[in-house]
Fold this protein.
Amino acid sequence: MAKKGKETVHTGSQIKESLGSRIFDGFNIIFLAGVGILCLVPFLYVFAASVSPLEDIITRRFFIIPHSLDFTAYKYLLGSKSLIRSIGTSVFITVVGTLLSMTVTVMMSYVLTKPIMGRKVINAMVVFTMLFSGGMIPSYLVVSGLKLTNTFWALWLPGCVSAYNMILIRTTIKALPHELEEAATVDGCNYFQCFCKIILPLIKPTLATFALFYAVGYWNDYFQATLYISDSTKWPIQVWLRQIVVLSSGLADITETGSNIPAQSIKFSVIIFATVPILCVYPFIQRFFTKGMMVGSVKG
Amino acid sequence: MKKKSNENASIMASPRKSGIRYIAANLRRDWILYLMILPGVLYFIIFKYGPMFGLITAFQDYNVMKGWFGSEFVGLKHFTRLFGDTSFSLIFVNTLRLAVANIVFYFPFPIIMALLINEIKFGKFKSLVQSVIYIPHFVSWVVVASICTTLFSSESGALTEMINSLFGRQISVLSSTSAFVPLITGQVIWKEFGWGTIIFLSALAAVDMQLYEAAKIDGANRWQQTWHITLPALKSVIVIQLILRMGSFLNTGFEQIFLMLNSSNRSVGEVFDTYVYNTAITSGRISYGTAVGMFKSVVSLVMVVLVNYLAKKAGEEGVY
């Protein structure tokens, strides 16, 4: 980035931009702004509709600025036990799952930078899983064979370590200067202490990035939950949302209190509930992305 | 570390007379490391290699009560049935159609966008565009499917009337067979193109600025600079991405398609993954479903190896 900035200043003083080049810049900026807006419009529409009264949704069709505000759907949902429970479930699954995945993945990455016995075998074993997999049904049979169905372990364990993430983290650790760890070893640190006190603090941006990736995976997961969790009290928010919006069978459950909240309005606010939490984390971690992603190339 | 490597050297130096003693010494010295890697290794063995072993289901008449070790082996029965199945060619064509649409319409998109973003000169605007186009990646498929329902459902969709007047006839985006492939591909483009630019943008950030300086002095315009410097710099990344894409050629985003399928578009929307799910989980034909899944996995593996070989032959780096 800094490089680029310097470069433009430099050329500015040297060669004058041609007219065609400036026209291109203008179009480019307008085009990219348009693309950016297209990325956001669906969210803006859903949000605007979620805070609008039903008449507006029906008469105005597509809009992103609400005329009048109406929060009944939110009020209703915040009082509904099953929504609160499913959000709680999702938060629990995401937090525990991310911690578990990160712990196992980072420890494995660290050890694979050391010259231990069998390292090559383990590396090959990991890479092969990126090329070939047993597939859905055998995985299902393993999970149900271990009696994990209807427990959250069925959501945490089968996708606990991503080979891709593990390799990228390993590359990051490998790129650290060896001297730091050597110094710590001389001071009497064992491998685990080195790992906790030297390695982890040094790779914080990477840790933040991959923790977000795992967290997004757990929060957004729908299929694993439908496959393994049949008990509706354990459903995460995504499954719940699916029930309401597409199958609309969940409506019987939430409208049982005899309220007159139309399904239309509720749909929009549930989408907001399923989206906003993960988007809240995003700005805090976003600055680490390129840093954390760039260090490891695509290759292992 | 120095001390350790000396130790290591002395162990290495002593001829491996007794392998067991060597292993024992190694384990005693590095036990912490082995303990730390144990959970990861166990994970891969149980949840990755376990299912691979479980592929024997495809050669058995799997019985839930008897499991893998008690079920009867039937050889290639399920595969013969699969290739004779009329729905097999249908699924194959459906999968292929979606995969080709993905490669043709989605794959070049992030590359073009990365090139355009790279041309922006205001740093602030550049990072704003990047932050915004990454956002859809963080949304679940359920949310994407739900938003699509609110926008396109034939009774109450916000955009339904607009689309109908645009095409001059009634089009039900969510259920018509002709709209399925554009719908799926469009969703993928909306959700993933921004995220896809990251890998290309980071490759572009690594290009040596002096190349551009030199080109400018030689009188190259911006298009020539893009063509002769930027694109060649992206070439190896594009090839690697293409190889990886080929490996998952038949993986047509299971969750997404599963969510968008309904009884009226099933004839064009049923792909390998959904067929596996429907046969094995919904109708309980476990062995047959496993055979279908295994066929897909093997084809994917062959594709990766083949494309990787071709890439290497063409002088590019492969993925392995």
Notes: Chain A has a mean pLDDT of 83. The radius of gyration of chain A is 25 Å.
